[in-house]
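Bench notes, afternoon.
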Amino acid sequence: MIMKFIAFIIIVITLLKWEKLGTARKLLLAVIVVLLWNHGKDNDKNHQKIAFDKPAACWEETLPLGNGRLGMMPDGGVDKETIVLNDITYWSGWEADYSNPKALEALPEIRALLAEGKNYEAQNLMYETFTCGNNGSNYGNAANTSYGCYQTLGSLIINYYYDSKDSVFNYSRLLDLNNAIVKTEFKRGRVKYKREYFVSRKDDVALVNFEANAGGKISFTAELDLNKIENGVKLLSLVDVKHDGGTVNCFDNKVVVKNASKVLLIFSSATNFNNEDYERFVKDKLHYVKSHSYNKLRKNHLKSYKELYDRVSLTLDDDKRAELYFNYGRYLFISSTREDLLPPNLQGLWANTAQTSWNGDYHLNINLQMNHWLANVCNLPELNEPLINLTKGLMASGEKTARDFYGADGWVAHMMTNPWRFTAPGEHPSWGATNTGGAWLCQHLWRQYEYTQDVDYLKDIYPVMKGSAEFFHSMMMEEPTHGWLVTAPTSSPENAFYDADGHEIYVCMGSTMDVQIVTELYQNVIKASEVLHEDSEFAEVLKSDLLRFPPMHVSDSGYLLEWLEDYKEVDVHHRHVSHLFGLHPANLITKTKTPELYEACKVTLNRRGDGGTGWSKAWKVNFWARLHDGDRAYKLLNSLLDENTYPNMFCAHPPFQIDGNFGGATGIAEMLLQCNDGEIEVLPALPSAWKSGSFKGFCVVGGYTVDCEWENGEITYKKIHKPKK
């Protein structure tokens, strides 16, 4: 802004004395004005890049590329380069039966023990009976079991050969978020080498373009080292090249290039996941790419990517690091999912091992949901489709799980799932007993309607939401003291409390998070019923049930209770803060509607502390933004960036887990724009450090988009755009 002001003054002075100036001075002043006026634009572009001055020494220094299906992460090596390859559908495993006859037999006794306050005995019985059969997720090591694991495709290994043995200088390696292209450049002797890497969303292939500023200087061998899955999806991967000059030969799975001037390396790959003719698909993509110029392919890529990325912009004049993190989150989301496939998993799209951490699956007690928080606010509603389709696909399996484990109607999904429609309780009740995973997914189904107002879409997903509500209506039991309707058995995700005898207890009835999730589910089903003018009788049943739900309670010390009673937590600083679901991502707790609970959330978060894993801190950024405390949210955001971020800006759980990237980016948006009590709040939690800035294209409920500019913490421009018809 200062540079533009100076440029404006120069323009005014110049116009006053224009006739007295010579031609040379006129031209010089014009150039100065243009440079000053565009100074901010160039500066913004520089803050859309992640750069290194040397090759990656580890995977967490490589730069991620993806088109929602294929991914690659080149390390930029000079003599030898490893490019890790991925496909969002490359899973081992298969659909299987995870029923356990003991569970339904033991359920009445488990519930009776919980009603008597004998949680320890109920927990022990659950450990013996109320778990999935068939080993479940095998405690996160299921690469060779039916549950399966998300796995790396393997790597493309490139060995380079040079005429000169001179040392390398002027090395640079960067990812440009504006165009989703990685560039590696360096000089060796007098020759400058340049590589460009991208994965085209339009043409659905991965490309590496090699150039040198002298002819005949590009020589290398490229070899595919694939990770083969014995039981899972089938795969075909092909590598080919186009070249100017030199020679190209193929030996087994190696491509040998000698003395070329330019080379385009093409990687085409697919699995048979939802693609029976995958081999033809791979060959057709390869044929298309070979028949078009690199410039054409690059233009295709830029157009398809920027159509999504350029919908939203953010400028933080005083905090380019947060600005970069926000844009990186959007970039990663666009790069790790696409409409007709799978949603981003625990690692998004990028894995470098056969046994990915926690199987690289979909955790339903926060992580998969956090992956999608930024979709609507960042105007990417179509990228919710994989999550919507995954949820719809869980119904049949979830109905069987509801019958087999609870003797209940409707459908249920517990703590985790995978592409093979796993819905059963986990293999250990301490974390696997949570049964509101599917209900939480239904929040995203409804939220998509809130943003799009698409009634045809609502008709399509209504049976999914209704089926989830039917499950809870048929499985909830009466809590004996007050007659409240509660879920049982259940847990507050991964957190434990001490009973009177000092035992660590995970299993309970009616955890606060359950009450909040099911409350919102019922409310949304009722609203959907009213919009669609159907199921009015069922809606009345849900309204009646809601009156019997436990209220949210505040302890004598002022914090929100996590369970029906004020138990002593085993870990008061536990990373999960599940009982604040009602504050975020739901809006059951707001300053206007529930002021006492709103204040209790502050006490709860202060008691929990600001520590935690990457995704945990990201969630806390969103919590404090909802509490309109921008400086506290900013403090946690900086902690996330300082302590839970790898060199390539992947979020550290640790190890790498992408939900923190997405949750952190959403937290930045929450600090700048909210719509919770039916009113749009602009800059509701602006940190004092963000004195000046602007955003454009942020979305709120109803499909409205909002633009804003501010100076010295005060809004100078605001515009709300009506949704496009």
